[in-house]
Design brief:
This protein is α/β, with parallel strands linked by helices. It has a single domain (2-254), classed as 3-Layer(aba) Sandwich (Alkaline Phosphatase, subunit A), CATH 3.40.720.10. It is built from eleven helices and eight strands. The protein has helices spanning 12-20, 32-41, 56-61, 67-76, 89-98, 102-105, 121-127, 138-141, 160-174, 189-196, 200-220; strands at 2-8, 46-51, 77-83, 132-137, 150-154, 182-187, 224-229, 248-254. It has an eight-stranded mixed beta sheet with strand order 1-3-8-7-2-6-4-5, sandwiched between helices. Helix 4 packs parallel to helix 11 (200-220), helix 9 packs parallel to helix 11 (200-220) and helix 10 (189-196) packs antiparallel against helix 11 (200-220). 50% of the residues are buried. The structure holds zinc ion. Zinc ion is lined by residues 52-53, 89, 191, 230-231. Zinc ion (ZN) is lined by residues 52-53, 89, 191, 230-231.
Length: 256
Amino acid sequence: MLFMQSISLLQIAPTLADFFGVHLNSQARSVEQILEFAYSRNPQVVVLVVIDSLDYRFYTDFAEELKGIHELVEQDGFLFECETVSSHTTPAIASILTGLRPESHGIFANNDVGKSKIKSILEILEDEGKPTAAAIETKGAKPLLGRISYVFAVDDREDIIAYDKLITTHTISVLNKQDLRLVFSHLRAIDRFAHRGNDLRVAAKAINENVRAIAKAVSERNGLLVICGDHETHGRDKDKKYGKAPAAVPLIVCCP
Ligand SMILES: [Zn+2]
């Protein structure tokens, strides 16, 4: 099901906070349809996967390569067109995890991450006794060490397909922890391929396989899977198809 109502990436963290019954400081409202869906399925764990550079146009243009993700929407899920808040990864992900605009959270570069006093939804849940996990790049992971229960740091590398495989493996393995409530992971192949001008179909297929593997593990735990992009696909906007409209990314919520 596609909801035409446009929402923003800022609404993800407030929605998760409401679902788990914890307090988060954000001006953004939670998304009623997501809450209703989540309450009705009563998932034991939520997995949030951010797919770097997956924008709405990429999602539709590469529907064939991303078939597994489209099927998650068709089977038991829904899709929102979601407004972005930044065209860069670090501030966009910080906004997804805090519900705050970049100018409010102040996290623009990797070395801002550790300095920020603002807590992400991962840390807020952890502080309320609800264990959380993250599978992300080492620089982003370091500030979370000792702050949340399970941190999987993956070093950046030339082979981004291998990198995403490791992120996927960690995401699946941590789902064995029965006390876990929220997992965050970040897949990067599309972004790297777009920057290098490499064949985006290869990246899309790899992402599709990783998401399918994660979805299977989520299904075995009766979990809720949330998938979104972080910003527009770099290097593909030269034809000005978007005009001046803000870029949109897909937000998928499903019970695989
Ligand atoms: Zn990005």
